[in-house]
Design a protein that fits this description.
The protein is an all-beta fold. Strands 34, 36, 41, 43, 44, 45 and 47 form a 7-stranded mixed sheet that branches. It has a 6-stranded mixed sheet with strand order 35-48-42-46-38-39, with no helix packed on it.
């Protein structure tokens, strides 16, 4: 695994040779494209949008159309945005029928909606019941993108009943939650606080009033509940097939309802079905629906679109037309000086669709070990990122890729616009950052990543300038001292692929530091004969690494030990200094099956020159917890070891020998041995196996640590 460049990252800011003009909105520096993008997700077919606002983020949950001759829908997906124009795919499938313990049939994963309550995310989904008919199931997760799991252990929340489709959920101001669903009737029920059971029975809405201007219901399916002020809005697909979108209003979440009118009629390549959702976000209002305008799109390959609208002064919803443009003005500019996921985009071109068997499958987004990334990118594939604010200028772009060597060009304004940089992507078997100088990257612009030679995967990118570059640095600004003990959790600052590489990019330990490295509290574990203290790095995978800036006090040969735990027989680690291997790959002994017993192991010895260096710890085989690493000068007359033992030059011939955990192993007469190497040879001749030992002269309080090789 190639380590990131450790040298100081000197940046020469290129002074723009010309001032690029950018369109602006009302002087706020928001780029406005000559055309915007509907549908908003191009890398998968995304029917039945369900937008939800989580603070500063909008997440749109959708189905996953796969084409064919009917509604072949496998699983559910989600993409999120903070600016309403660039959308980040949060994962391939975040939930499928397979997650419901056999209660749901395949390819029947229909419309759904998510809501957050008490720190949990509840996903109400339509399934085809294995008992016949349709049903409403519920899944739960700790994060908006999942992973979701069945909340009812194979049971339906409602159904089976062929009418039971398209749930929508709402929590009112008084804390009461409601669930609505149904075709051709509108059903509703109160949810208990647990969000997975009903408070009372299921109710049928009186469809003879409130759902048509002439008294006969035009309600079809796909309800969406919304509240604005004190008024409730029930929005739904109407008028049969081909469907329109209409709405009714009420002063109560349970009705009675009053007809409001048609919001969206057929036209501009909307599908023969429609399904909508409405949100207010950052003082603006947005209407989501689906069309069939994605590449190879159709009535069974539908995609989410969005329109911005303004409420009428009387609180009514205006008629909204389907457009190609969608949202013209972003909520804010995108900051390229923070990490941007490659799958964050406003548009994707050059898409490949697998149409085998009459189906439509797009495979440009994949997930591996928690990382979502772009893949299967051929020549001509490109992504567009809107309204990128490069401020006074960006000097460099860093891209993270893996796979074959390739070529990518970064253009401004269009896929053939001003060339900011041509990037030769290096081949790499693991994720690797590569840095490229930019030319005239200044101001607010739309950026296009245009693939000229594919064969690689693309994880993320970011830009840097003299002001924004984050260098690798010691934890809290203080280098670890050698000789001495280095706590594993005190790895350098600087982030992913600079100070560490974490494959799954999920902080599974959730202790001590808030980044991607998995740190665990080991207070309930055993370290030798005592309880452990503090933290360790855990949940490790093969080829993950962390780096430490170390301050070596003296030119010397240092012995290295580590305190580790593993439940496997193939876990280990290897050390590097300044990117040069200084130990072999050392396999740690399996001590227990729960990672709760830590054992000190020897890693070898290394000659180190005085001064500052970078220590890299590379995980081999995975599933190894690392508590600390210690460097000791065996010839130092005052080198500390665990337990407060001090080591001194030998002063006697007869010695008691102890293990590193303090266990008495025997007494030896080392004769005239005066140096640590001589004593090591003498111990070996006395029958001691390779390892590290603590020696105390008989009748003396001083101790010495000696390694037998």
């Amino acid at each position: 695994m190639k380590s990131p460049i450790r040298a100081k990252r000197d940046v020469i800011m290129k002074i723009a040779k010309s001032v690029k003009l950018a369109f602006a909105m009302a002087g706020f520096g928001l780029a406005v494209a000559a055309f915007a993008e509907n549908p908003i997700f191009q890398t998968y077919y995304s029917p039945d949008p369900a937008p939800v606002v989580f603070g500063d983020t909008v997440c749109v949950y959708t189905g996953n159309d796969e084409g064919g001759t009917f509604f072949t829908m496998h699983g559910w997906r989600v993409s999120c945005s903070t600016d309403m124009v660039n959308w980040t795919d949060r994962g391939a499938l975040i939930l499928t029928n397979e997650d419901f313990g056999g209660s749901a049939k395949a390819t029947g994963d229909w419309a759904a909606q998510v809501i957050r309550r008490n720190g949990k995310y509840y996903y109400y989904v339509t399934v085809e019941s294995s008992r016949g008919g349709r049903a409403i199931n519920v899944a739960v997760a700790d994060k908006p993108e999942g992973p979701f799991k069945d909340a009812l252990n194979g049971k339906h929340l409602a159904g089976p009943n062929w009418d039971y489709i398209d749930p929508t959920v709402w929590i009112d101001d008084d804390g009461q939650a409601y669930l609505y669903w149904g075709n051709p009737k509108l059903y509703w029920a109160k949810l208990n606080e647990d969000m997975v059971s009903f408070d009372g029975g299921i109710h049928e809405t009186d469809m003879s009033r409130g759902f048509s201007p002439i008294g006969e219901s035009v309600y079809t399916e796909g309800p969406w509940i919304h509240k604005r002020g004190k008024k409730y809005y029930m929005i739904y697909a109407s008028h049969g097939v081909p469907e329109k979108i209409s709405y009714s209003t009420s002063d109560s979440p349970t009705g009675p309802w009053t007809w409001g009118g048609i919001i969206m009629d057929q036209g501009n390549n909307t599908a023969f079905t429609n399904h909508s959702g409405l949100i207010d976000f950052k003082g603006r209002s947005f209407f989501f629906y689906h069309n069939q305008k994605n590449v190879k799109g159709g009535g069974y390959s539908r995609s989410t679109a969005v329109e911005e609208f303004t409420w009428n002064a009387d609180g009514s919803i205006p008629a909204i037309k389907s457009t190609d443009n969608g949202v013209v003005k972003p909520v804010k500019n995108l900051d390229p000086f923070e990490r941007v996921e490659a799958e964050t985009k406003s548009w994707v071109g050059g898409i490949t669709v697998n149409t085998a068997g009459g189906y439509t499958i797009i495979n440009h987004v994949a997930v591996s070990n928690g990382a979502v990334y772009l893949t299967n990118m051929g020549s001509g594939f490109y992504t567009k990122v809107r309204s990128v604010d490069m401020r006074d200028g960006a000097g460099r772009i860093v891209v993270c890729t893996r796979g074959n060597a390739g070529k990518v060009e970064l253009h401004a304004g269009s896929e053939n616009g001003a060339l900011l940089v041509a990037m030769d992507i290096p081949a790499s078997s693991a994720w690797q950052e590569s840095s490229f100088d930019l030319n005239d990257a200044v101001g607010v612009d739309d950026l296009y990543f245009v693939v000229k030679q594919g064969g690689f995967d693309f994880d993320y990118w970011y830009m840097e300038s003299e002001k924004t570059a984050v260098p690798q640095a010691p934890y809290k600004g203080v280098a670890a001292t050698v000789p001495g003990k280095i706590e594993a959790e005190n790895y350098d600052e600087g982030g992913h692929n600079r100070a560490f590489y974490d494959a799954d990019r999920e902080n599974q330990g959730r202790a001590y530091r808030d980044d991607e490295v998995d740190i665990v509290d080991i207070g309930d574990s055993r370290c030798g004969e005592k309880a452990c203290e503090g933290y360790a790095i855990g949940y490790t995978q093969e080829d993950e690494w962390v780096e430490y800036t170390i301050d070596v006090k003296n030119d010397a040969k240092y012995d290295i030990t580590a305190n580790v735990a593993t439940a496997f027989e193939t876990s280990g680690l290897q050390l590097f200094i300044d990117d040069k291997a200084v130990t072999d790959a050392v396999v740690a002994p399996k001590v227990d099956t729960t990672w709760n017993v830590y054992k000190e192991i020897e890693l070898g010895s290394v000659e180190l020159p005085k001064g500052e260096h970078v220590l890299k710890v590379l995980i081999m085989g995975g599933y190894l917890n690392v508590d600390w690493i210690q460097f000791t000068d065996p010839n130092d007359t005052a080198t500390s070891v665990s337990g407060g033992v001090r080591l001194f030059v030998p002063q006697a011939a007869l010695y008691n020998v102890f293990s590193m955990t303090g266990k008495f192993l025997g007494r030896v007469d080392l004769g005239p041995a005066a140096s640590a190497p001589d004593m090591s040879d003498a111990l070996k001749r006395s029958g001691f196996a390779n390892g590290m030992y603590v020696l105390r002269g008989v009748g003396l309080s001083n101790t010495l640590r000696v390694q037998v090789k």
